[in-house]
Design goal:
Length: about 290
Amino acid sequence: MTQHPALSDPEYSTPGTSRGLISGFQHRYLLSLLLKKGVITRYYGSALGWAWSYIRPLAQFFMYYVVIGILLGVSRGVEYFPVYLFSGIIMVNLFSETFRSATDSIVGNRALIQKVYLPRELFPLANVGGAIIHFAPQAVVLFLISVLNGWHFEWIQPVAFICAVLIVVLFGLGLGLFFGALNVLYRDSKNFVDLILMFATWTSPVLYPFIKVKDRAPEWIYNIYMSNPLTAAVELSHGVFWAPIASGAERPEGIFIYAAIAFGIAIFALIIGQLVFRKLEGKFAQNL
């Protein structure tokens, strides 16, 4: 029996095979189509459209500023508290949107997954790309506010900002792959995601300075707290936008060591998420 020429072609691959996240980046055209679809349809039919990318974080900011900053008096102890608050909020929002959108990506694309095969990792990757695109306007607004308040450039700032974004995106994507795969089998996985996101803002120094934890918690708890990827990313963000304009800014000692640990935790979460995703993706179509 003669073998079909395609079977001996080095470019030929059996349908259904995937190399995980690498396959997602290898199919850049499909990834760009999914990304474009997500961005275009996000506010489809909305009167305000992309303005919601500004309205939501600003509404969140004013709520926290009034309640935490003014009523509870936290703003009296933190110089330029609005900048401090907003530079933390944008990182938490990036994590929340990355984590939630990656978790919902498989179930949300059930119609496409049931009809045709393409690397399943394309869906969470496209959703995470959309989260980064909608994070950008918030970062630009924060940068402009910092500049108006006397922000000055140092070479370490862009490095710290890139590190903060990488930590948040990798950690959120890793958790999103894990819970996104479980969400296909057990739809109440979204409830666990909601619980994690509910605690995310309060377990990182967004609404309060890190020094309050350092002064009150045992050293080993403080070290765990600072090694939390979201905490490290928020403090890096503070160092980029808030610390240059606040003369009395108190920064954590060894922040880049904590950031390195947080980066390692984010990579570990990504590996575990990818392994679980690969383990369960073969049954996505029938379980959807």
